[in-house]
Amino acid sequence: MNCAAPMSLAELESAITLVPDFPQPGILFRDMSPLLAEHFSATVQALQALLTPEQWNGIDALVGIESRGFLLAAGLAQALGKGVIMVRKPGKLPPPVFRQRYALEYGEDTLEMNATVSPRRVLLIDDVLATGGTLGATEALCLQAGHDISGAVVLINLAALNNYQCQGNAPLSLWTY
């Protein structure tokens, strides 16, 4: 049994490593690998605290976006007794799937979601919100599937790169840069 005091957001944030010029020059990459390796449970608890118990009661499943969104959604689902719905890159899920193309900085990509999952009340979960393309595509997939979207939660919102709104509301995040 762990009786340690909960970690502050500042303590958790200090576990995120800053990597300059990755994946290309001029980018300051925030590597959350150490955070998840050393403080996964505390990170899940911090994400859970972004919503009230009443808000969590209105959610049936968490939509985890490939790939680190899977980890966060699974941790939250386990802690809260919720289901997980995966959004994956093309060809990773068996048919039938819903498919959504979206714009990248230089080109396009596609995401897929299983088409046999019955409509649920869902919350979108991802690690980083940069331009909003991935979350926007996931939102469109959820609407195709008939899900009722409660909102979106991310660890890090790079707000200077986006003005993304999920169902008219800004995503909740632990850290905004």
Features:
Rossmann fold, single chain, two-stranded antiparallel ribbon, 29% helix, alpha/beta
Give your account of this protein's structure.
- The structure is a single chain.
- By secondary structure, the chain is an alpha/beta fold.
- It has one domain: Rossmann fold.
- Helices cover 29% and strands 33% of the residues.
- It is built from 5 helices and 9 strands; from the N terminus they run αββααβαββββαββ.
- Helix 4 links the parallel strand 3 and strand 4.
- Helix 2 runs parallel beside helix 4.
- The longest helix is centred in the N-terminal third of the chain and has 16 residues.
Instruction: State the domain count.
Output: 1
Radius of gyration, whole Å: 16 Å
User: Can you give the helix content as a percent range?
Assistant: 25-40%
The spatial strand order of the largest sheet comes to 5-6-4-3-7-8-9
Class of secondary structure makeup: alpha/beta
**Strand content range:** 25-35%
Please count the helical segments.
5
Query: In the CATH hierarchy, what is the class?
Result: Alpha Beta
Largest sheet: 7 strands, mixed
In one word, what is the shape? Answer: globular
What is the total tally of β strands? 9
Distance separating the two termini: 35 Å
Average pLDDT for all residues: 95
Outline the low-pLDDT stretches: none
CATH architecture: 3-Layer(aba) Sandwich
State the order of secondary-structure elements, H for helix, E for strand. HEEHHEHEEEEHEE
Q: Provide the CATH topology.
A: Rossmann fold
